[in-house]
TrEMBL record:
GO cellular component: cytoplasm
Record carries keyword Transmembrane helix: no
Location of the Tryptophan synthase beta chain-like PALP domain: 76-415
Top-level EC class as recorded in UniProt: lyase
N6-(pyridoxal phosphate)lysine PTM sites in chain numbering: K113
NCBIfam families (alphabetical): PRK12391.1, trpB_rel
Catalytic activity: (1S,2R)-1-C-(indol-3-yl)glycerol 3-phosphate + L-serine = D-glyceraldehyde 3-phosphate + L-tryptophan + H2O
Described purpose of this protein according to its UniProt entry: The beta subunit is responsible for the synthesis of L-tryptophan from indole and L-serine.
Database matches in Pfam families: PALP
Protein name: Tryptophan synthase beta chain
Reported cofactor(s): pyridoxal 5'-phosphate
Family: Belongs to the TrpB family.
């Protein structure tokens, strides 16, 4: 058995194309609908929010879309990202399984999010845009877009969910270091934010609310566009560089995953690692199980309904068919802020509906326990979001131990937790508890889903 730990690609092996899963799906995705007419939206409907290059990627059915050379030049700062064999974790677990992890925490912002932030900033600059407005939960996306904006001379404004804004001050400092402006959401800077605060001055915020605030500002100026760090097709597309690199590295290891695991909030990290493997299977190759791991306090894929819903709480976005807890649902303030979203990427949701992936949900204390075990064996302190993928991988490894199976498990370690140490402090102090959503609130949120006829 090889004891090689790192599998590294040369820069000239970095993928030159993003992979578009839509080209290989057995059934096309449901259309995105205009909320007023319930008719499919066209490029012109999205033009106030995004540059046309990104809109065309959003609707593309081509299998491969070229990564612009200037974007690849920036990617060389941290890509290709390493693949590790987790020998020490395997030994600690006493499992016959082989565990590999793709590590995305080596990017300047510390996560996988720059994989889409950089091309989004690039295309916006090419379109003559001067300012980008966005939202962020834990701050991984906000800091990544701030980094990308600094490279392309773009002004960046970030609405950060209030509970994360308070929990993670160093994320805010990182955004400001890159030159961005960070505002706690809900805020007094938008009509929608003020309406939320009028009802509850101490509202903890949610990604849905922060999206509404960002969209409201984005459409007010012609030199401004909106940028999103997850959920949309073009965002998931950009992240497939993760899985494509991992496929090359698994071949270097003379191995192939039986199970691919990713944490799931909006869907970008999961799609990044999993979509190339799903596509490979759809084209006749080996089909690994795909396991999405989400927080039990915001269990979109495991408790949500597959239905048309708004992507934001203020109902400013088009309607997409996705697994959702309802746009009015506010998750409790657990520490994996990047996973606190009421919906799931429509393309990830479509894969779940087609049976191409499965989902599980775990409480945050168990996920932190898994993250600490990982750190003490592999050395990397994971982000709270990534702890969910680690927990999922450990559960699969222990299943292999019970069943006596030497399966190969691959997961995406989507970012480091260096700005999340207050969460770990609370864990070690016994102050980190499992948060639980309000069942009544969930029922009300699901009951208020838009009425879209099944025939649409």
């Amino acid at each position: 058995m090889s004891k090689q730990t790192k599998f590294l690609l040369n820069e000239d092996q970095m993928p030159k194309f993003w992979y578009n899963l839509q080209a290989d799906l057995p059934k096309p995705m449901p259309a995105v609908l205009h909320p007023g007419t319930l008719q499919p939206v066209g490029p012109d409907d999205l033009a106030p929010l995004f540059p046309m290059a990104l809109i065309m990627q959003e609707v593309s059915q081509e299998r491969e879309i070229e990564i612009p050379e200037p974007v690849r030049d920036v990617f060389r700062l941290w890509r290709p990202a390493p693949l590790f064999r987790a020998h020490r974790l395997e030994k600690a677990l006493g499992t016959p399984a082989k565990i590999y992890y793709k590590y995305e925490g080596g990017s300047p912002a510390g996560s996988h999010k720059p994989n889409t932030a950089v091309p989004q900033a690039f295309y916006n600059q090419e379109a003559g845009i001067k300012r980008l407005v966005t939202e962020t939960g834990a701050g991984q996306w906000g800091s990544s877009l701030a980094f990308a904006g600094s490279l392309y001379g773009l002004e960046v404004e970030v609405f950060q969910v209030r509970v994360s804004y308070d929990q993670k001050p160093y994320r805010r400092a990182l955004m400001e270091t890159y030159g961005a402006r960070c505002v706690a959401s809900p805020s007094h800077e938008t009509v929608y934010g003020r309406s939320v605060l009028a009802k509850n001055p101490n509202h903890p915020g949610s990604l849905g609310i922060a999206i509404s605030e960002a969209v409201e500002l984005a459409v007010q100026r012609e030199d401004t566009k909106y940028a999103l760090g997850s959920v949309l097709n073009h965002v998931l597309l950009h992240q497939t560089i993760i899985g494509q690199e991992a496929m090359l590295q698994m071949q270097m290891a003379n191995d192939w995953p039986d199970v691919v695991v990713g944490c799931a909030g909006g869907g970008s990290n999961l799609a990044g690692i999993a979509f190339p493997f799903i596509g490979h299977g759809l084209r006749g190759g080996q089909k690994p199980r795909i396991v999405a791991v989400e927080p039990a306090a915001c269990p979109t894929l495991t408790r949500g309904k597959y239905a048309y819903d708004f992507g934001d709480t203020g109902h400013m976005t088009p309607l997409t068919k996705m697994y959702t807890l309802g746009s009015q649902f506010t998750p409790p303030g657990f520490h994996a802020g990047g996973l606190r979203y009421h919906g799931m990427a429509p393309l990830v949701s479509h894969c779940k509906a087609l049976g191409l992936l499965e989902a599980v949900a775990y409480d945050q204390v168990a996920c932190f326990e898994a993250g600490v075990l990982f750190a003490r064996n592999e050395g990397i302190v994971p982000a709270p979001e990534s702890n969910h993928a680690i927990k999922g991988a450990i559960e699969e490894a222990m299943r292999c131990k019970r069943e006596g199976k030497a399966e190969t498990i691959l997961f995406c370690l989507s970012g480091h937790g260096h700005f999340d140490m207050t969460s770990y402090q609370k864990y070690f102090a016994g102050e980190l508890t499992d948060e639980h959503y309000d069942e009544t609130e969930l029922a009300l949120a699901l009951a208020s889903l838009p009425n879209v006829p099944e025939t649409v």
